[in-house]
């Protein structure tokens, strides 16, 4: 039961990190971004769970792989940030591929843990709640003039936080 709560917590934290990336500079329609991100998340977590249920991988190595992937995501998005478009440009296919790879690895971990495939629905709902919480958090930070300069660093710090928590 503790494993399930841990997975739910990390899926919420992933939604918070991805949602803050998406809402740092919003240039797309909100409902389209939420729908596309949710579908990409659902498909790649489900695919990762399917692959994880068939394959074997040592758990410490998998946690290190997830941490490494989160750090790579943080560095990748830090390097591609642009003040006018934010973290996700209009034709940012590499960004969506990075999301897909990260979601696949998270689903792979869930598959290795032998969680039921039905938990993908729960994880997707928790992920969506994380995105909505990130939108609220970013709007609070943007509206507070004292911390407005920190808005662009919140997603990067969240990915680093995920990486550190996975190693612990």
Given helix and strand content, the structural type is mainly alpha
So what's the overall shape? globular
Treating each run of at least 4 consecutive H or I residues as one helix, how many helices? 6
* DSSP helix fraction: over 70%
Please report which band the strand proportion falls in: under 5%, 5-15%, 15-25%, 25-35%, 35-45% or over 45%.
Answer: under 5%
Tally the beta strands.
0
Unreliable spans are: none
Cα distance spanning the termini: 19 Å
The residue-averaged pLDDT reads 86
Task: Explain what the structure shows.
- This protein has 168 residues and is an all-alpha fold.
- It has helices spanning 2-23, 30-54, 59-79, 93-112, 119-143, 154-167.
- It has one domain (32-167).
- The model has no long low-confidence stretch (mean pLDDT 86).
List the SSEs and their pairings.
Elements: H1 2-23, H2 30-54, H3 59-79, H4 93-112, H5 119-143, H6 154-167
Question: What's the short version?
Answer:
This protein is mainly alpha-helical and 168 residues long.
Distinctive features:
single chain, mainly alpha, 76% helix, 168 residues
